[in-house]
Fold:
Amino acid sequence: MKVNIDMGAAPAGAKAMLDLEELLATRLLVQGNSGSGKSHLLRRLLEQSAQWVQQCVIDPEGDFVTLADKYGHVVVDGARTEHELTRIAARIRQHRVSVVLDLEGLDVEQQMRCAAAFLGGLFDAERDYWYPMLVVVDEAQLFAPAVAGEVSDEARKLSLGAMTNLMCRGRKRGLAGVIATQRLAKLAKNVAAEASNFLMGRTFLDIDMARASDLLGMERRQAEQFRDLARGHFVALGPALSRRPLAVTIGPAETSARSSSPKLTPLPQPGEDTHDLIFTPAPEERRAIVRRAPPPPAPTPTPTVDILNQLSQAKVMTQVETSAPTLFPEIDQAERNSLIDAVMHEMLTDPDASFRSDAVLYQDFLVRCRIRRVPGDALALPDFRRRLAVARAGIDGETAQSEPWQQALELSKTLPDDVQGVFFIVAQAAVTHSPCPSDATLARAYGTHSTRRARRLLTYFEEQGLIVVRTDFTGNRIVAFPDLACETTAGDPNGPDEGGQEQYAAE
Structure:
């Protein structure tokens, strides 16, 4: 069925019509600087096509939630877990409901993760539910950036992969991507290249004008016209719009965004009471004023006998309180520690675990703890790093209780978190009188493939006075710990990584 929707006015008094069925097969890219009218264009497109096709809007600023009042879109709050968003997206495709994913209030990395999970749920829906859907992504450069920014590589890969699936493979699943961006140079090329329809608005930078003219098949000298376009004026090209570049003026929209362009309003006339207006609190503010507590009195010397009496009373009160029955069951710390250790070893059986950042492993650890129902509060990130480093050392239970190992734990507190794992592996070899680990083993513990970095860490430990490194006549390495009164046996520094993940699997 052929459906043409009215996007506005074309030259010579004609209407700018958009073939909706063709758009579903060929996708659309909208580009224009801030204030050029991109959001208004998307709103016009959504309003005109709302009765014909299911819609989904990825809305990073919360501008499109007003569609719910007039057109019945369901607003999905992005402040959910990724699993929830994936399941919601699957049900949306099943029941053919138009939605707006509101990501307002989330930081950029959270927005990217939420959008990736939601788009993944739409993409992975069962074949029976592959109904046509218009997927509109505003500010697409946030979700498909051309270069890495301040967000983590994992979040960028997830979001970019979801956007690539939408634009490259979404057509067969009924998903038609409509992406809008402020700058083509900020948008990943493999995402932008999949669109066959273009609406180019006002832009000023030479690189963006050059890319816009190339996409529209125009000569470079014609690219200057993009600087002169007024708000709401675009140049259209594509099988769903026009076979030749066509100037289009977007028509009015029935709904409006919650935010709008700033409007100038007259300033109030200055008066004599201006000073009082600024520095005199209003009545409701007076009630909210929080008084600062007076400074504590200077401490007076307390006799030693009084201090001892206070400490003894506190000890008696503590014993009484602990003996009283509690409403909540007490946590068995031994059981909790065993569950945490089990989660640690389960994580480290992954061959790629050694080369993932601590932040990524920490998120994986929290999820696994919830699955295993580990009681008590979650470990803080510094505590997690320390326990992870100990787990990577692979120390057995009997050795862990020995005095040299306890001294090694105390020595490690003087080191940065990221090198403690290497220190523990070498200390474990010394305490158990095992061969000195190879450079490859130390590199894995440090999360790198560079053996040179591993050797530099040993030099760093030696400079701190923690170890003494020497080499025997055969070229094997021995590391001694003066504070622990023990040392490793001779080990080949150029040997293979013999610990690896098999050690954790065996445990």
